[in-house]
């Protein structure tokens, strides 16, 4: 995480603000688990045109496992055929990922 923008004071402040606002992993919560977030993720990756320092609503708090899942399934591959960033469904059978075409 030594690359720009993550090595800047501005990112550290933004990251801290997001984790204060949303301390739990949003994906784990959708899966019915309570897991403390330790990573702040750009919903739209910088490599895909996302803003380096976006407003808080364009960021999400994730645990390391969910962040790794999103990075490998979506960010590095520039998306996937289904448009999913996360696997799985919630207790009602709805996909975990709100960008999924089947979501609500």
UniProtKB/TrEMBL annotation:
Residues 74-104 are annotated as: Disordered. Residues 13-68 form the HNH nuclease domain. It is an enzyme of class 3 (hydrolase). The keyword Ribosomal protein does not apply. Its EC number is 3.1.-.-. Signal peptide: none annotated. Keywords: Endonuclease, Hydrolase, Nuclease. Coiled coil: none annotated. It comes from Sedimentitalea xiamensis. This is HNH endonuclease signature motif containing protein. It holds the Pfam family HNH. The keyword Hydrolase applies. InterPro entries: HNH, HNH_nuc. One of its GO terms (molecular function) is endonuclease activity.
